[in-house]
Amino acid sequence: MRLLLAEDESALADWLVRALGQSEYQVDWVADGRLVRRALRGTRYDALILDLGLPGLDGHDVLADLREHDERLPILILTARDSLAERVSTLKAGADDFLAKPFEIEELEARLLALVRRSRGREFSRFVCGNLSYDAVTKRFQIDNEPLALTAREHAVLRTLIQCSGEPLAKREILDRVFSDESDVHPEAIEVLIHRLRKRLAGSSAQISTLRGLGYVLEVLP
Q1: Which of 4, 16, 27, 24 is nearest to 159 (CA)?
Q2: Which residues contact 92 (CB under 8 A, 6 or more apart)?
Q3: Could you report the per-residue pLDDT of 32-87, keeping only the tens digit for each?
Q4: What confidence tens digit (pLDDT) does each residue in 151-176 have?
Q5: How far is CA 48 from CA 3, 132, 133, in A?
Q6: N or C terminus of the chain with fewer C-beta within 10 Å?
Q7: 167-176 burial code (b ≥16 CB/10 A, e <16)
Q8: For residues 216 and 158, is the Cβ–Cβ distance under 8 A?
């Protein structure tokens, strides 16, 4: 899952990037509200963590701007302003959830997962494509309830594909989502991993298709 974090407290932002990274989230960080729209133009994110007290353009204005331009990205407000009026105003303005500082990382992760599930119409923390399933809590893949053995990189690529099941992802986008902190990984590595995953999925009802000009998509066999 790829997240955009808009937070001006560098110590908090650094901690969040590292903590969420340990739970297999890819997090990009901006410290100025004016940079949010620019980041969203260049990358497809699963959710935005938005602080209200941003320099340049504060969180309220960022939120209003995104919703005015029909940006439907799930947005979780992260702020020290913990008042009923603040919560009500931001939720009415289009925020999807509100978390006051200080907070526990486990609660943030649970709220993010719930936001993304709701945005994709999913009720549970389980992603399914045919008889292939992925449990976001246990971080395990199964085919017909049997564990699917994968290497760490195969797991990361397949997780990215099943979280966007039915949506094509370009090779560069998969690379950025899975290996954003590894500068030595080349786009050709994705081709190799896709080839391996197709072998792993042989015999299942899920397949990885190549859409010319668009990328790879995980879908159910017709």
Answers
A1: 24
A2: none
A3: 999 999 999 888 899 999 999 899 999 999 999 999 888 889 999 988 877 778 88
A4: 999 999 999 999 888 889 998 889 88
A5: 6, 28, 26
A6: C
A7: ebbbbebbbb
A8: no
